[in-house]
Specification:
about 190 residues, Alpha-Beta Plaits, 4 strands
């Protein structure tokens, strides 16, 4: 059965990519940096804006703002380039990506805030760190002004939705962390 058609409309999209089988998507920091370099090249080439990202071990999430007609070609560029890097570096053959990338267009400001919290809270929910700003491979600390590692990230749309304050964003994400952690604990 073919995959359903994608929403490729311009605007904000939550995108994600998962590794295939038992493979990690990022084996180490060298892989993480290689993906970031390819992300920056993709942003430049396709005129995207990265609102947020979070690299996990087996997958990656990002919120990107894309112009008309560039989502599919940009994701192809990013995924193909990274898969080639990973396979070459690790002496691996075959598909790295489990299936085509996932995406969902973000509908409004409330959806943007919820999606943003979901993305940056991934490492906390998976017990990789106690607070989202502690995760080295997320743009959250940069958005809060705690780091200058990912200067290519522009979270101004998220900050505008929360009143322009990083303190308000931090409170919102902390509230979402409590709710999400409780929901995950109940499910386990």
């Amino acid at each position: 059965m073919p995959s359903p058609p994608r929403d490729l409309a311009p605007g904000l999209h939550h995108v994600w990519v998962n590794a295939t089988s038992h493979w990690p998507y990022f084996a180490d920091d060298v892989d993480r940096v290689a993906w970031l370099r390819l992300l920056v090249a993709t942003l430049d080439r396709f005129h995207w804006t990265c609102v947020a990202f979070c690299q996990m071990t087996t997958h990656v999430h990002a919120i990107i703002d894309v112009p008309e007609g560039t989502l599919a070609s940009g994701m192809h560029f990013l995924n193909l380039g990274y898969s080639r890097h990973f396979n070459t570096r690790h002496g691996r053959f075959g598909h790295l990506v489990r299936k085509r990338y996932g995406n969902r267009r973000i509908e409004d400001g409330r959806d943007l805030l919820g999606t943003y919290a979901y993305v940056v809270l991934n490492p906390v929910v998976e017990r990789m760190c106690p607070r989202p700003e502690d995760w080295r491979w997320s743009s959250y600390a940069t958005t809060l002004g705690l780091s200058s590692d990912f200067t290519f990230v522009d979270a101004s749309l998220v900050l505008a939705e929360i009143g322009g304050s990083t303190a308000a964003l931090r409170r919102f994400v902390a509230e979402q962390q409590v709710a999400r952690t409780a929901a995950v604990a109940m499910a386990r």
